[in-house]
Amino acid sequence: MQLEFKIPIFDVKNLSFIVRENTILSNISLEIFHGEYIAIIGPNGGGKTTLIRMLLGLEKPTSGEVRLFGKKMKNFKEWHKIGFVPQRASLVDENFPATVEDIVKMGRVAKRGIFAGFSKEDAEVVEDAMAKMDIIHLKDKMIGTLSGGQRQRTMIARALASSPEILILDEPNTGVDMVSQQRFYKLLSKLNKEENITIVFITHDIGVIADDITRLFTINQQAAICNNPKETLSCEDMSALYGIDAHLISNHKHDCSGESGC
To answer: Which of its termini does the chain have fewer beta carbons within 10 Å around, N or C?
Structure first.
């Protein structure tokens, strides 16, 4: 019987990044597979955003290698397969002269190219992306007039317009209220389960590490990978990761040496 091997979307081997003798990341190795829903947490300066930038080819590692869909970074051309929502993407100038629909249409550039005409298929994909993010009723609104949550969903719709296989979000809830955050995570879960889009997001909000995610990556120069986040997260884990005396408030039960409030 022939064995079938899964090719990771991202295959990271021994990745390190050093700037002016300051080690940002050290010997990171990990794999991200199709259909996963992954959260990345860690302290400020721990290297989370740097790791994402290297996955996207925006930074070159000091040593190590990143393969995308089985290809070396230098040989990978299908960037439309990767949707990216950068940190603070929803914080736009309120006078920026573009409608919601204009912003989402920008996502087709990665798929079609800068000089390609806008086809009927493109229009349908843009409409579908706005529908997934529940912003069709806002399509003629200027982006600067929207709430933080509405802008957030617009930026995700723009990423979805390239028809990606994986969606990467860096601190997507910056400037977004709690109600919008909860709605946002439900939308992410829906994209993962119903659209089969692989989701990877960076967060500082430990409270969102919920039942939906399949794996948790903790990054503080080095990486630890939790295959069962609900069992692995504990006060001791968080204290070690963040370098502080951490107390988790959660609906899940953890053994934290009998400490209350954990």
So the answer is: N
pLDDT digits (tens, 9 = 90+) for 127-174: 999 999 999 999 999 998 888 888 888 999 999 999 999 999 998 776
Give CA torsion, residues 97, 99, 102, 104, to 10 deg.
130
Q: Alpha helices, DSSP H only, in 84-216?
A: 100-105, 109-112, 120-132, 148-160, 178-194
Contacts of 49-54 spanning 24+ positions with Cβ under 8 A: 49/87, 49/170, 49/171, 49/202, 50/17, 50/24, 50/25, 51/15, 51/25, 51/219, 51/223, 52/168, 52/170, 52/200, 52/202, 54/15, 54/17, 54/25
pTM: 0.81
Q: How far is CA 168 from CA 38, 77, 82, in A?
A: 10, 17, 7
Nearest-angstrom CA–CA distance, 257 and 99: 54
Count Cβ neighbours within 10 Å for each residue of 147-178 and write b for 16 or more, e otherwise.
ebbbbbbbbbbbbbbbbbbbbbbbbbbeebee
Low-confidence ranges of the chain (pLDDT < 70): 1-5, 88-95, 110-117, 174-177, 205-211, 229-262
pLDDT for 229: 66
Look at strands 71-72 and 63-68 and give their pairing.
antiparallel
